[in-house]
Amino acid sequence: MSKLPKKLWSPVTPILINVGLSLLLRSCLVASTLDIGLVANFRFNGDFADNRGNLSNAANYGSSFTNDRFGNSDSALSINGAQYALINGLGTVLTNATSGVTVSGWYKSSKEFFSGFIQNNFANPSPSPALRIGVYNGGKVYGNLGLWGTYPGGPYNDMVSQEIFSFNTWHQIIGVIEFGQTPRFYLDGEPCYLTSNLPVINAPFIFDSPFALGTSFEGGVVMTDINYIQNGAIDDLLFFNRPLSDSEAKSLYQTQSVPEPSALSLLAVGFGGLAMMRRRRS
């Protein structure tokens, strides 16, 4: 068997080895760091399962599946009109969090929307836990993180940012509740500048409401107002029982912005280079 000419293998071999093995190492390190405190992971790859196995399947009310941000079919939750889904049991994995909680998801919508919950509502305006992400008021990242009904300036004020969510395009939104700090949002890995004054969150919460996908669940009621309903898709919804830092939020966005390479594919690249080296030396 003829040997591979030196001018062909010499520049290719070290590149294949270094790229394949370094990407595999980086992927493992990032995944292990962001795996800490991850208590629920809904990937919507043709099902409504929590891939962490801590929660039951999300209850579906008319939603289906569509292409994800990478073009993979049936790999994201399709929400249109009055369709929605509910995630139950979050209290079992978030209520005992001692430092805070984080919710992260990828959203695509043709209009303004809300997703999540407020345990009370306007009929019962007493302060209550809230974990709600939204896009409102001209496409601004909006929502409620912490105790709804306690924001300065009025009992119904929401968290309002200056960052704009462009419609009909995939974006990642992260909401962080950190005890002893003010709540914060991230859009595509970057901190949102909040124009509303927010209180410091000082105590853990008891989460006992369903988390709605495609609308908001407030005071025991699924909201059907047109301003709440999403037309689009949701993917990779994650819940952590700890607050993500600025650097972790950025890292999570960067990690999820590109298709996830499989360990086998990365190993194949690396070992392909090693095989070429062995062939040259034989």
Layout of strands and helices, then pairs:
Blueprint: H1 6-34, E1 38-42, E2 59-61, E3 64-66, E4 76-79, E5 84-87, H2 91-94, E6 100-109, E7 113-118, E8 128-136, E9 140-148, E10 159-164, E11 171-178, E12 184-187, E13 190-191, E14 211-213, E15 216-218, E16 221-222, E17 232-240, H3 246-256, H4 263-281
Parallel strand pairs: 7-15
Antiparallel strand pairs: 1-17, 2-5, 3-4, 4-17, 5-14, 6-11, 6-17, 7-8, 8-9, 9-10, 11-12, 12-13, 15-16
**Distance N terminus to C terminus?**
11 Å
Task: Let me know the number of strands.
Answer: 17
Helix content: 10-25%
> What is the quaternary state of this protein?
single chain
Form type: globular
Runs with pLDDT <50, length 5+? 1-9, 21-27, 152-156
Q: Gyration radius, to the nearest Å?
A: 22 Å
Number of domains: 1
Percentage of residues in strands: 25-35%
**In DSSP terms, counting alpha (H) and pi (I) runs of 4 or more, how many helices?**
4
Provide the residue-averaged pLDDT. Answer: 82
Structural class: alpha+beta
Q: Under CATH, the topology is which?
A: Jelly Rolls
Largest sheet: 8 strands, antiparallel
The first-level CATH class is given as: Mainly Beta
CATH architecture identity: Sandwich
N-to-C SSE string, H for helix and E for strand: HEEEEEHEEEEEEEEEEEEHH
